[in-house]
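User:
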Amino acid sequence: MTDVRIAGVGLTKFGASPERTGRDLFAEAGLDALDDAGVDQDAVEALFYGNFMGELAEHQGHQGPLMAEAVGVDAPATRYEAACASSGVAVAEAVKNIRNGERDVVLVGGAERMTNLGTAGATEALAIAADDLWEVKAGMTFPGAYALMANAYFSEYGGDQEDLAAIAVKNHENAVPNEKAQYQREISIADVVEAPMVAEPLGLYDSCPISDGASALVLTSEAFAEEHDLDAPVSITGTGQGGDLMALHDRDYLARSPAADEAAAAAYADAGVSAADVDVAEVHDCFTIAEVLAMESLGLFEVGEGISAASEGKTTREGELPVNLSGGLKAKGHPVGATGASQLAEMTSLLRGDHPNSEYVEGATTGVTHNAGGTVASAVVHVLEVEQ
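Assistant: Predicted structure:
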């Protein structure tokens, strides 16, 4: 089995770009990744592309070949859809493809165009990641679903709105120097707890924004990287994927995410590491409570202890285990099809030392990314390590 190197990364700025098409966004990210890798389009043997709502936002299906054309790649191209975990799944499949020796160079990433739908339209489009028959038709939205999860967590383990607010404050602070982030501004605990309520106990600043954007990675086999003298010090050494029932009312737990538990266990076993080896994490914080559930699933904190990690300073950029140095979905933004691959792009830059927040993880060798779909009915976890 071959190692998988991350030879190059590319990201657009996340935010509101309603005038830009999905193919325009992905072309920017894909070409930047190829340039970062020093790899020509002709070397790419496949494109794996994540996208969730293209049919609704752009009346466009069959996006794989379209995105290959946009980035100038003449190779088989496949679209992957797993709600907000779409490009995380695409990365997992690309890793398998390279490991099994089928291909040496794969361009993988994702994009989403959302703001052209408006707030109501984007909310309706996002809702199709829930169970339409039993949740959507009853009026369930994702803010409401995650509010149920937050209240269940508070009831079972404790915590309060100020604990969640500390997560939002931390992630906004991390986003300030990140030029790719949608919100490069700090907020206070008071800003969060006094903001308009969206779905109690989650307010406006507990929620990630609606975003447009794209991300891309050039993945290569170790042999290709060495043969072409690529500067690719970061490898994907572990990958895991888990699943759960779609509808919340069918699950055994509201305050835990078994799909992410499963994905994390598989990724750690694949890499031959444990949670204790992790130096830095990028997790799926679509709502502040989601960061808590993610960290506990990753084993970074015991169940019931993740709620206070930010307020106690443990996951801040100066803390013992920085989480979401990119700004996370909360402040960097969440163009859903792009998010999973963007987490790996940010982590790669952090570990290479060329991210604006790399100074806070100087000497780090192991990072983990956590990407979730819906209310974590899908989850993908990747372990990234610096080659020694």
